[in-house]
Design a protein that fits this description.
CATH topology of the largest domain: Alkaline Phosphatase, subunit A
Helix content: 25-40%
Shape: globular
Distance between the termini: 84 Å
CATH superfamily of the largest domain: Alkaline Phosphatase, subunit A
CATH architecture of the largest domain: 3-Layer(aba) Sandwich
Strand order of the largest sheet: 4-3-5-1-6-7-2-8
Length: 488
């Protein structure tokens, strides 16, 4: 009988221990991924730009890590988003390297892997886009299930014990903008941070002010998301990631490997953290690094081949260094050159370090902004988004104050570009031919070529023409003032 009671006691202790272990095991985190559309660094008050108000981003910064050197893999919506989904460099995604290209369903995405782990994975508004995913073997957008009613209803109908990953894909601050909305909303066009590659005239200051008003609207929507998380009781166990797919829709920015095309905001927050002071990290990040970071947070053991590097060691305080450089690329943006039946892109690769930006233009005979016109199409300099800035610069291209800036955004470029960043943060003065920098250029050339070789880049040694022959799932024609989508 004593032995019986002894055994019962032992079993009770074991049961209590198992119960305690279950209770102590932390719940897997929810992840809210807020992806802006065409938002350049440094346009937010958390980066020191006080010409606009972004209080909700400031609030997130108080509970997270602000990255100052984050870059998209490609300054074009579709390949940038595909790279984030897969953790791969765009040139490793076959037809997914181009705007409106095809993302092979067989390439693993974090959406597929998180679903296997029991996560509810959904998106609202702009997911993987633009392009027709139904032509690619997908039955739904690669970003996940469509939450047609938005984030609030998605949270309300979620089982209490099911973790989620939600992609909130705002269309801000993508064009078109509401004309005059910036000034109406209290943004003073005379106080905005105007990049020096744009003419300093009222029309363009007003256009940038309208752009900033859309960043402010993004911030307000972030506030709504935070309110919903708090009211649902899920805020403390939700990691919030805020980023952008590429840079601002202006000449010399979006669809280019210059900083205003590739350098983007990145902020990662968690309100359950003990620290409430903002932490800044100046190490380099490529947004392909988000995919392995998500997998680490969730504890995914199945790991496909990826190029990204997890940010968890940085976020956990185990290291302050992530990358010492980033490699950037771009292929076809819009169908805007007559060559190859309008399929010709403008292939580029670049290496960005703390001190230099080195760019290789592999087809310098082509127009980087697209041909001014293509017969039987509405395309006009089709790799520069239409709007007041484009109209002004085209109409005043021969003015003394505009001529050189127009050339920066629209004219042909040499095969090599080299920018000394401490003297030239806007990437205006190409010093590739400067003899005093020849050893630096040679070093950057070698590093870029070694990366291309290691990554099996099809553009190495002059190749890659098959990329220009990939069919576009949807035709995107950019005009002087807007964009026209057309499907066969």
């Amino acid at each position: 009988m004593k032995i019986f009671h002894y055994l019962i006691g032992c079993l009770a202790i074991i049961a209590l221990g198992v119960s305690a272990c279950k209770q102590d095991k932390p719940a897997r985190p929810n992840i809210l991924f807020i992806l802006a559309d065409d938002w350049s660094y440094p346009y937010a008050s958390l980066y020191g730009d006080h010409s606009l108000k972004t209080p909700n981003l400031d609030k997130l910064a108080q509970h997270g890590t602000v990255f100052t050197n984050a870059y998209c893999a490609s300054p074009s919506c579709t390949p940038s988003r595909a790279a984030m989904l897969t953790g791969r460099y765009p040139h490793n995604l076959g037809e997914g390297v181009n705007l409106c290209g095809r993302l092979d369903y067989q390439v693993p995405t974090y959406v597929q892997l998180l679903k296997k782990e029991g996560y509810a994975v959904a998106f609202d508004r702009k997911g993987w886009a633009p392009g027709d995913f139904l032509k690619m073997g997908y039955r739904q957008n690669p970003a996940g299930d469509s939450a047609k009613l938005g984030f609030g209803p998605f949270i309300d109908q979620l089982p209490a014990d099911q973790p989620f990953f939600f992609w909130f894909g705002t269309n801000d601050p993508h064009r078109p903008f509401d004309l005059g909305n910036g000034k109406k909303g209290g943004i003073d066009p005379q106080k905005i941070h105007l990049p020096k590659f744009l003419p300093d005239v009222p029309e363009i200051r007003g256009d940038v002010a309208d752009y900033l008003s859309e960043v402010e609207r993004l911030d307000r929507e972030i506030g709504d998301l935070l309110t919903k998380l708090e009211s649902s009781g899920k805020l403390a166990n939700t990691i919030i990631v805020v980023a952008s797919d590429n840079g601002m829709p202006f000449p010399h920015a979006k669809a280019n490997l210059y900083d205003y095309g590739t350098r983007v905001p990145l902020l990662i927050s968690r309100f359950s953290a003990n620290e409430t002071q903002p932490k800044q990290n100046d190490s380099f990040v490529n947004l392909i690094d988000l995919m392995p970071t998500f997998l680490d947070w969730v504890g995914v053991k199945e790991r496909p081949e990826i190029d990204g590097m997890s940010l968890v060691p940085v976020l956990a305080g185990k290291t302050t260094t992530h990358r010492s450089e980033v490699f950037l690329e771009r292929e076809r943006h819009c169908l805007c050159r007559a060559e190859m039946d309008s399929g010709a892109g403008y292939p580029m690769r670049a290496i960005r370090t703390a001190d230099y930006l080195y760019i290789r233009n592999f087809r310098p005979d082509r127009m980087p902004a697209g041909d001014e016109t293509i017969p039987n199409t509405p395309s006009i300099y089709g790799d520069v988004d239409g709007g007041p800035t484009k109209v002004y610069m085209m109409d005043h291209r021969n003015d003394a104050a505009v001529q050189s800036l127009f050339a920066l955004g629209f004219a042909k470029r040499p095969a090599e570009e080299l920018y000394v960043l401490k003297d030239d943060p806007y990437n205006i003065n190409n010093r590739a031919a400067d003899a005093s920098l020849s050893s630096i250029k040679k070093d950057l050339q070698g590093r870029l070529e070694r990366w291309m070789k290691a990554e099996n880049d099809p553009r190495l040694n002059g190749g890659g023409d098959q990329i220009d022959r990939y069919e576009s799932t949807t035709h995107a024609w950019i005009t002087r003032t807007g964009i026209i989508f057309w499907d066969k």
